[in-house]
Amino acid sequence: MTDTTITTLQVDGMTCEHCVASVTEELSEVDGVDSVEVDLNPGGASTVSVQADATVGHDRLRAAVEEAGYRLSAR
Prior knowledge:
This protein is an alpha+beta fold. The chain has helices at residues 17-28, 58-67; strands at 4-12, 33-39, 46-53, 71-72. The protein has a single domain (4-72), classed as Alpha-Beta Plaits (2-Layer Sandwich).
């Protein structure tokens, strides 16, 4: 059994439920991701919590967010 972790990401540029769906879809396609929850903050950084195998690296999550057309907050 693989250990799971919850990673919290701050994502810029999300403004609506379509944005939430796009980011959720891309993150969910990463091997090892079990669930994705988004707290939408239009006009600011939205909080995205990803539950995944401990082996899923931050770089893979960032790449999925970028594939959806968004970027991680520098904050």
